[in-house]
Amino acid sequence: MKRFGVLTVAVVAAVALIPETAHACAVCFSASEENREAFILTTAFLTFLPLGMVSGAGLWLRHRVKERDARESLESPEDSSSV
């Protein structure tokens, strides 16, 4: 266990003291404006795509529940008056 702690401290120190080792990839920190813009747009797309999919599924589910409730209220109007 002590060996793991020493290794962890060494890795954290290396990352903190040598910033170049912390870079994710060469494309993320490219000097080219086109590469930087593409990276930012791709990051935004990959961030908002799952949020949009979850929101769309929630809206679809809400719509289906409302349709089902409307259909049930049309089929049995006498049950709703006793509630």
What do you see in this structure?
- There is one protein chain.
- With 83 residues, the protein is mostly helical.
- 77% of the residues lie in helices and 0% in strands.
- It is elongated, with a radius of gyration of 27 Å.
Class from secondary-structure proportions: mainly alpha
Beta strand %: under 5%
The unreliable regions are: none
Indicate the mean pLDDT: 81
Number of distinct beta strands: 0
Number of helices: 3
Secondary-structure element sequence?
Answer: HHH
The radius of gyration over CA amounts to 27 Å
Q: What fraction, in percent, of the residue positions are helical? A: over 70%
Distance between the termini: 65 Å
Largest sheet at a glance? none
Q: Characterize the overall form.
A: elongated
Total domain count: 2
Features:
83 residues, mainly alpha, single chain, 0% strand
Summarize the structure.
77% of the residues lie in helices and 0% in strands.
Secondary structure topology:
Blueprint: H1 2-17, H2 33-75, H3 77-81
